[in-house]
Design a protein that fits this description.
This protein is an alpha+beta fold. Helix content is 23%, strand content 39%.
């Protein structure tokens, strides 16, 4: 039996207090840090041509014993982790063919 029960969605709040719904894509560990990839959930007023609708990568950090999601610290960190997610996503796609 497949363990894939469908998409997983989370809602995060940005620095301006806006709620953003994200669909979980994948997670990986790199240099001892856990990263998670999401796509913004489609809404009625979403624009697929909007550059802000691409892959969202956040890292898991622990504060006061609670796991929170945080933005990445640098463009270099983002580029490295983005490349790892792209490799993993395209690898999975190749196996299904």
């Amino acid at each position: 039996m497949s363990e894939d029960l469908g998409p997983t969605f989370i809602t995060i709040t940005d620095e301006d207090g806006n709620d953003i719904e994200l669909e979980f894509v994948d997670a990986l560990e790199h240099n001892g840090q856990k990263y998670m990839a999401f796509f913004p959930a489609e809404t009625e007023d979403s624009d697929e041509e909007d550059p802000d609708t691409g892959l969202v990568i956040l890292k898991a950090v622990t504060e006061n014993g609670e796991e929170l999601l945080s933005t990445l610290d640098s463009d270099e960190e983002l580029d490295a982790v983005y490349d790892l997610f792209m490799e993993a996503l395209f690898e999975d796609g190749d196996e299904e063919s």
